[in-house]
Each structure stands twice: as C-alpha cells, then as structure tokens.
Amino acid sequence: MLKPVSNVAVESDSRMDTLEYAGSEITDGKLHELRGQPQLRTLVIWGGSLSQRQLGLIGELPQLRGLVLGEMPVDDSVFAHLARLTNLEYLNLAYTKVSRGFGMLRELPLSDVRVEGCLKFDDDAMQDLAAFPALRHLEAHITSVSDKGVQAIAALPLEVLWLGPKVTDACAASIATMTTLRHLDICAPGITDAALPELTRLTNLQALWLSGTCISDAGVETLGRMQWLRELSVSYTGISLEGRQRLAAALPDCRVIA
C-alpha cells in the first residue's frame, strides 16, 4: 500500500525537480509560482482537497513528467485538466474517486499509472488503459477490476502489475501472456493453487507477491520450479511453516516472505 508524503512541504527551490506538498498547503498562489519553475518534473500532492480552479492551474504546468494526486476526493473531472499535461509519463491517483476518463489522456506518453484504492476503477477503465502502448507499470490494487479487465490489458508490455481483490484463477491465463513482467503482485482470495502453473510461464519475473491469496502447501512444488524468482511473498496464505521451509529450500536464491 502506498504511504502519504510528509505533511511538511518541501520548500520551493529553483534547483529542485521534485516538490511534495500536503493538500492543505496548496494555494492558488503556490500553483502560480510553480508555473515559473521550468525545471520542475514531478509534483506530489497528498491528502486534503483541491478546487477545480486549482486542478486547472496544475493543468498549466506542461513541464511535468510526473504527478501524484493521492488520497483526495478528485473524480473524473480531473481528466480534462490532466489532458493538457502533454509530457506526463507518471500519474498516481491512488485513493481518489476516479473511474473512467483515461481515454482523454491517450495523447500523453504515460508509462506508469497507479490507481491503488480507487474503488470505482473497473474493467471499463482497464479497457481505456489498453490503448496506451507505452504503459510499463500499472498498480490497480484495491479496485473493482475483475478477470475481464486483466484480459483487456494482456497485450501491453507491462513490467510491473498489481491486482486485487476481485480477480480469480481465471485471470492467470491472461497474465501468463505478459512475458515482460518483472514484478507481479496479486492480493485476491480468488487466486488458488490452480493459477500457479500459468504463472510459471513468466520466466522474466523477479518478484512475485501472492499475499492474501488462497494458495496452499499443494502449490509449493509448482512455486519451487520458479528458480528465476528473487523475491516471493506468501504471507497471509494457506502455506504452512513446513511449506515455507520447503519453498526456502527449493528457491535458495529467492527471499521468501511469510
């Protein structure tokens, strides 16, 4: 789960390319000041609330490559403002009320999208993201995405993917086609040992997190075949202490987290 930034704002500095603020510290004047900082690349605002006027002022920062608007009640009206950020590559809207609207951003070079905790983000929204050929990193944890949504993005060259809690074993076949994945995090009770054989096809995978799934000791042998893993989380699953010990023995070069 993502954590909010410090409540203390980073002082504006002409040499800084990243600035972080609590939402309560943002004013129209502060945003006007940022327009005069062409070196600014990433703006982080966490918590609080922003007015439509303030969102409009953020849309007047074309120098931004990264933007975080987290844990605040922004909704799909934000996309009209974001569409003006023609250089935006990284967008984090975690714990907001966004759902549809990513289609308005198709002209942006987005490669990293994070919508953890966006409960209204669903399969239709995933279909919108399927139109972003540069997308490499997608965090859709704690959303309404189901197996259908995973299938929609299967052709993307993703390297990092977070999913849960509504996906099931049925999504494993789609995930298995994403051979560019390096980090996969699925936290969903609908994932069982039946999904594991499909995941063994992901030979570029370095980190596999299956916390909160219903895998068990019956899946240990299959997981043990994934010799390329360097990190494996099986915490809050049905794998016993003995099963974790067997995993550690089978994967000596992998950090097993339980």
Describe the protein:
The chain has 258 residues and is of the alpha/beta class. It folds into 2 domains: 145 residues, Alpha-Beta Horseshoe (Leucine-rich repeat, LRR (right-handed beta-alpha superhelix)); 89 residues, Leucine-rich repeat, LRR (right-handed beta-alpha superhelix), CATH 3.80.10. The protein has 9 helices and 11 strands. An 11-stranded parallel sheet has the order 1-2-3-4-5-6-7-8-9-10-11, covered by helices on one side. The longest helix has 10 residues. It is elongated and about 60 Å long. The two termini are 17 Å apart. The N terminus is likely disordered.
Average pLDDT, all residues? 94
CATH names the topology of the largest domain as Leucine-rich repeat, LRR (right-handed beta-alpha superhelix)
The 3D shape can be described as elongated
Q: Give the terminus-to-terminus CA distance.
A: 17 Å
CATH superfamily of the largest domain: Ribonuclease Inhibitor
For this structure, the quaternary state is single chain
User: Number of helical segments?
Assistant: 9
Features of this protein?
258 residues, alpha/beta, Leucine-rich repeat, LRR (right-handed beta-alpha superhelix), 11-stranded parallel β-sheet, 9 helices, 11 strands, disordered N terminus
